[in-house]
Amino acid sequence: MTTQSKPLPMTREEAGHKDLDVILVTGDAYVDHPGWGVAAIGRWLEGHGFSVGIISQPDWNDPEAFRVLGRPRLFMGITAGNMDTMVNLYTASRRIRSTDAYSPGGRTGMRPDRATIPYVSRARQAQPGVPIVVGGIEASLRRLVHYDFWQDKMRGSILLDSKADLLVFGMGELPIVEIAQRLRDGKSIKDCRDIPGTAYALGGKESVPEGEHVEVLPSLAECKADRRALGRVTLHMYRESNPHCAKTLVQLHGSRWVVQNPPARPLETAEMDRLHEMPFTHQAHPCYRKPIPALQSIAGSVTVNRGCSGGCSFCALTIHQGKDVTSRSTESVLREVASLPQRKGFNGIVTDLGGPTANMFHMKCNSAAANAVCRRVSCLHPVRCKHYGTDHKPYLNLLRKARNLPGIRRVYVNSGIRYDLAALDDEFVEELAAHHVQGQLSVAPEHASSAALQMMRKPKVEYFDDFMRRFRESNEKAGKEQYVVPYFQCAHPGVGPEETIQLAQYMKQSGLRPRQVQMFMPTPATIATAMYVSGLDPYTKKSVFVARGDRERSRQRALLFYWKKEEWPHVREALTAWGRKDLIGNGPDCLVPPGAAYGAWTRWKRNSKSVRFDTHMGLQVERARKYEEDEQNWEAVSTSGGC
After folding, report:
1. Which residues lie closer than 8 Å to 340 by C-beta, 6 or more apart?
2. Are 74 and 131 in contact (CB under 8 A)?
3. What local confidence, expressed as pLDDT, does residue 44 receive?
4. Segment 554-573, tens digit of pLDDT
5. How many H-runs (helices) and E-runs (strands) does the chain carry?
6. Neighbouring C-beta atoms of residue 49, cutoff 10 Å
7. Count of beta carbons in the 10 Å neighbourhood of residue 516
8. DSSP designation for 500
9. How far apart are CA 101 and CA 572, in angstroms?
10. Most buried of 19, 54, 136, 272 (most Cβ within 10 A)?
11. How do residues 542-556 score in pLDDT, each as one tens digit?
12. What 8-state DSSP symbol labels residue 95?
């Protein structure tokens, strides 16, 4: 890792006025950091002998913006960025976000809705005849029929909507290099259709793959006619996500077929080491005059693994990064930590040594034979697989060595901690509390109701209680006053009034007062989204409660802030509507004291209809302003007690 490296070129001048092999287009500001997918892919290609340039946040209405680096020799790679565009632009209530963490200065309006589609359209116009490959999380999760929450409709594969030649899904290092090598060897983009980790659309006269290794999914028409079909599509996506035994998936879209190959294998430890030790600058490109908020939030952090074995219903990690956790070697991580004091602005504090789940470092299936045929979505739910290793010693060893390196004052863990795994090792919890918590430790129990946790595919709340007890004892032993900050979720499929009240009562009994609550957002390709769409558990086919619309979803959210005085009118309205007025009063079991109930939903709903979701950013900004005015009116009514 050298501090003298340069970022990948963004202009012809930076490229030395030479044609490049590959041009990558992204909806994010370009930050030369392994946490940015476009930077990781760019550096990986560069490390395999290809010249690469970056076009960042281009004007999607101007073809010239896609010509700034000239014409690529091999292909253009297009990604919406580190997040699905719609998640980046809109909240779970479909409101326009006021900031974009992946844009300079947090500025909004720098990318269009579903950015992959207009980017490909303009790239086609600007570079006719150049193969176009799409990837990143937006393309990955929308590779087959999916539900679009922001339009409330079923959409087909983004391959057909964008008219891209090839789609790379999952973590794309291996397939993208294979594509580049084949094109360099004179093969066509159609010759790349057998590469694992890719999907493609067949022409009207091309033959469809057949045989035992092929699974035919419900078509786009079937999913539109019967939303239960989306559950079958989603389950097949997860069942066929093991690269060792996955089948090819085919799905009919009108008169055309979309074909998804089996996933690419995950990177091995040596490959992960090589990727993270590429010559990243770990800084934003020098063309930016304002800071990139997302970079500021991870300054001083080091990634140690990727993938997650948890398989939570609402999380896309399993289907995108994979169920198998791939970890870097301890030596590679320590080399990066040792280099941190050379970075500009580093203050001696490693803000995070983790990944999607920090304490899954080097946890994996201990049976190669079992893993070769495994089709489980989760290694931990409903019960932990007997083959899954839970040894915390590799992570403990890493933490101990990292905190003793020269120039390192503190090493903290701010990534997610899987508390049911952590509770298996008293030594880990003790060292975590003694050395690696900065006053507050974030964990995500998500809920307290057993029924809700079953729908979420999360461990029972007793595991969280046990972890909190061990953490308190470890703090007492270390002589520290530190707290667990729990993350809870509302409006998840299967969470109704009864489950929400159970959670609020649990929070009161446990003395928990979270400052933030996550409202469930139905993102493409998750099991929870299939539940939201169909109202059924795709595994058991039993009906589940689904909170739809702003009223019901907002009621659940308000109840989890029962202790905030400004929410009392809204909580009273919810409890009255749910037939639980017994929880309004001054008794020890009551959630809120007597008083006025909020009752201005009709007015607020009418005002909210002025918001639409267009790709025209000028309209978005104006409607965002109007929406904020409406929301302020709603909050004023709420706090005053309503009508």
Report:
1. 300, 302, 346, 350, 407, 408
2. yes
3. 98
4. 999 999 999 999 999 999 99
5. 24, 20
6. 11
7. 9
8. H
9. 36
10. 136
11. 999 999 988 999 999
12. P
Residue 243: phi and psi, rounded to 5, are -60, -15
Q: Are 339 and 394 within 8 A, CB to CB?
A: no
Q: Is residue 583 part of a domain?
A: no
In-domain check, residue 213: no
* Strand 153-155 with 146-148, pairing: antiparallel
- Condensed to tens digits (0 to 9), the pLDDT of residues 595-611 reads 988 764 443 443 443 33
CA 7 vs CA 4, 40, 42, 285: distances in Å = 10, 12, 10, 6
Structure tokens that stand for 329 in this block: 């070697």
Residues 6+ apart with CB under 8 A from 226: none
Tokens 């390709």: give the residue. Answer: 525
CATH number at 87 reads: 3.40.50.280
* Tokens representing residue 202 in the block: 């067949």
d(CA 520, CA 502): 18
- Is the pLDDT score of 176 beyond 60? yes
Distance CA 273, CA 505 (A): 46
Give the chain's domain count: 1
Separation between Cα atoms, residue 537 and residue 166, nearest integer Å: 32
Contacts of residue 488, defined as CB under 8 A and 6 or more positions apart, other chains included, come to 445, 446, 447, 503, 507, 514, 517, 518, 560
Q: Residue 71 burial (CB < 10 Å; 0-12/13-18/19+)?
A: middle
| Element holding 305 (H helix, E strand) | strand 305-306
Question: pLDDT grade, residue 318 (50/70/90)?
Answer: confident
Task: Please state, as a whole number, how many other Cβ atoms lie within 10 Å of the Cβ of residue 241.
Answer: 21
Query: Does a structural domain hold residue 126?
Result: yes
Say how many Å lie between the first and final Cα of the chain, rounded.
63
Strands 22-26 and 52-56: parallel
User: What are the tokens at 199?
Assistant: 């999907």
The pLDDT mean for the chain works out to 91
Is 146 strand, coil or helix?
A: strand
User: Given phi > 0 = left and psi -120 to 50 = alpha, else beta, which region is 354?
Assistant: beta
pLDDT for 4 equals 63
Q: pLDDT tens digits, residue range 198-217? A: 999 998 889 999 999 999 99
Q: Does some domain include residue 104?
A: yes
Residues spanned by the domain of 153: 22-208
Angle at alpha carbon of residue 319, lines to 315 and 323, rounded to 5°: 90
Q: How many degrees, rounded to 5, is the angle at CA 546 between CA 536 and CA 603?
A: 155
